[in-house]
Design goal:
Structural class of chain A: alpha+beta
Helix content of chain A: 25-40%
Largest sheet of chain A: 4 strands, antiparallel
Shape of chain A: globular
Largest interface: A-B, 42 and 41 residues
Oligomer: homodimer
Number of helices of chain A: 8
Strand order of the largest sheet of chain A: 2-6-4-5
Order of helices and strands of chain A: HHEEEEEEEHHHEHHEEH
Distance between the termini of chain A: 53 Å
Radius of gyration of chain A: 18 Å
DNA sequence: CGCGGCATTGACGCTACTCAAACTAGGTGG
DNA sequence: CCACCTAGTTTGAGTAGCGTCAATGCCGCG
């Protein structure tokens, strides 16, 4: 059982490994990634993966499924800070900040498969070559840039703009991982998640989405989204 | 002229150096900070310090004055992402991300005094000892946590809550630098800046502020703010 | 004295919220 | 194969919070 699992989960055949931060190291012999991998975990949907206040000593990559980072506020309010898609580190921060105390929690949206590493091991891998250092560096840069963009979206864009930006961000991130075909991709978010990510309510998200559908901007069916008019969606995102 | 400037600006007498990330290194002999400092710059109020899209090769600490990071959107909208107060790096990101391309611009709020360093030099300083690495690490951690908090504020708090959170954040950061006496501190923001940081309009900020004054929460006069009832302000920030 | 930069205030409107009910589809057990 | 259940979506009516625009006030400064 175990050996079969290890074989089918071999890193050099992992489609996502190539797009992870440690992509450049992934194919070496002996395979450093696979050697250092501590465990592969499967987690059901809607589970807490990391709880607020934790100080993780391991770092995991998401091999399959979606998760999100959320902050819970008083009175049943919550804000989704960002989404974690396949190929992402669950907690990139822990590669930069020693003993990072989580100011939010991480929750699974779908069932997940995680690959776990010791933080020290991963740091070594990810700093082993110039190429790796660059990969880490630009990954952090994109993450920081996305956080900043999220702030301007929430502060200064209306509902349509925020939702359009969110869709575009996800499309971009998934496209870098080869998870988009012809502007269509897996989209496991419920309207409730879109609402909590954009600072809106479910009801209003619903109205905006049906407006976007009517305008032939997107085609959103359960679990799958297609951008029908990319240029116009960009314009709408920018103006809104 | 120059020699006088250097003497009065000596790092070991800089009140803020102690609270900067490189604080632990500040008093060594020979003085590494002062040796590596490339220049001291004075910049007027309302100037662009770093422009969006730049890829800075120097890193500066703010010795005096306030600045802020802003993103400009279409249609005269702007979002203030965060404020830079004395003792901060203008661009902490550049210590973590090589060749970071600025996704926002940095603007001075008041006249500034900056101390400039080569990024490589500063990296060396800031990684020279365990203590330094920890200082850098926790500084990045606080920055990341603040960005995330800002996201939940904008997404899920009302006007009072956002403004209260902003005031508390600034008080906390200034307090760590010994720039707060009895909950009172320099506060050079115009209402317009509060508005652009909290995603509100100047008019509405005005109404909220006068409400907060009427409730004896804060005492805000031009350029100076005092928190009158800290506990209650925390409560208001949390609930709002 | 007058100007420029902010702060303040009022009238009015719109975006997005609230609450609640109806609807839909996928899954499950009898 | 149907009845039912649940999770999620859709829709409506009424409303609140914050935005818009414009006028007025205030104060320091040249």
């Amino acid at each position: 059982m175990d050996s079969i699992a290890v074989k089918t989960d071999a890193c050099e055949r992992c489609a996502l490994g190539a797009f992870a931060v440690y992509g450049p190291t992934r194919l070496g012999t002996p395979n450093q990634i696979e050697l250092r991998r501590l465990s592969i975990r499967h987690i059901g949907a809607r589970q807490i993966v990391l709880a607020e206040g934790e100080v993780p000593d391991r770092i995991s990559t998401l091999r399959m499924g979606w998760a999100f980072r959320q902050k819970e506020l008083s009175g049943r309010r919550r804000q989704i800070l960002s989404f974690v898609v396949p190929g992402d580190f669950i907690l990139l921060e822990s590669l930069v900040v020693a003993k990072y105390r989580l100011p939010y929690s991480v929750k699974s949206l779908t069932p997940l498969t995680l690959c776990d590493f010791a933080i020290g091991d991963m740091l070594q891998i990810v700093q082993s070559t110039e190429e790796q250092r660059d990969a880490l560096s630009s990954s952090i840069g994109r993450y920081a840039t996305a956080l900043n963009r999220r702030i301007s979206d929430l502060g200064r864009r209306n509902a349509v703009g925020r939702i359009a930006q969110l869709i575009l961000e996800l499309e971009g991130r998934l496209a870098r991982r080869n998870l988009v075909q012809n502007h269509a991709f897996e989209f496991p978010l419920r309207q409730e998640h879109i609402a909590d990510a954009t600072g809106l309510t479910g009801a209003h998200v619903n109205r905006v989405l049906s407006e976007m559908r009517k305008n032939d901007l997107i085609d959103l069916v359960p679990r799958r989204l297609r951008i029908l008019d990319y240029e116009r969606l960009v314009r709408v995102a920018e103006e809104g």
